[in-house]
Input
Amino acid sequence: MSLQYLKEAVSNDDTEKLIRYVRLHFGDGSEAAGKKEIDKAWIEALKLLLDVPATKREFILQTLAENDAATLAHLFFHLHFYFVERSGEWIHDGRV
Amino acid sequence: MDESKENDSPQLRPGLWATVNERYPGSMITKSDFVPLAKLKKPLSESRLTFVSTAGVQPKGSLPFDTVHPVGDYTFRRVPADSKTEDLEIHQLKYPTVGADKDLNVIFPIERLQELAKEKIIGELAPNFFSFIGYNMNPEMLEEKLAEDIAEAVKVEGSDIALLAPA
Output
């Protein structure tokens, strides 16, 4: 099973297999595209902070402190797509 | 799929199929038992029909399907069978929606089914159709939770026929 495939990768500490899966997920089947998508999200996030705008750091700390790790992991995936969409270069066929 | 043929398609990106087996290793549900299709017990013109789709179609304002989760979304949405297409929207990432954005019926033929019911070719439509997204990496949850939940919901509404359509 696919999920079992991923869990085995975790058990075997097969990080290459895991990150490849993430890249394929983000790249809709293209590992190169997925890698670029990850870079794109980080670049977009970085650009937003270069002028050191005021941010709601209390909110961030509170969110991190008050939520379980799985919820934060889910949020991490949401944030990826948020910044990719915000970059204006949307490669996916559908929409979130 | 042959790569050259794939590249002829304006809707598929090159290389899309090259990794499909790696992305979904062993994700197909295999059955050792043969499950025959249920026979229709009355004519179509006297039957109540529902529609079950993997298109990710949902009423506007309902909780969007979780298209970002790496393992999938195992929930479904009820789509009232008398919905107007302008009151529906699609949330999914894994198939092209260019055609469906112009005419939802190409992926979710709700108006065609409404017409067939009005013409009495179909007896009637069930109160709701059912929709979910096809990106689900846990076949057990897909079969034992999502499919069971939808089957129960279909049963409660007394449908004689469930029209199934993958996106």
Q: What stands out?
A: Residues 43-165 of chain B form one domain. The first strand of chain B starts at residue 48 and ends at 53. The longest helix of chain B spans residues 139-156. The interface with chain A takes residues 11, 13, 15-20, 22-27, 56, 64, 67-71, 90-98, 137-140 of chain B (CB under 8 Å).
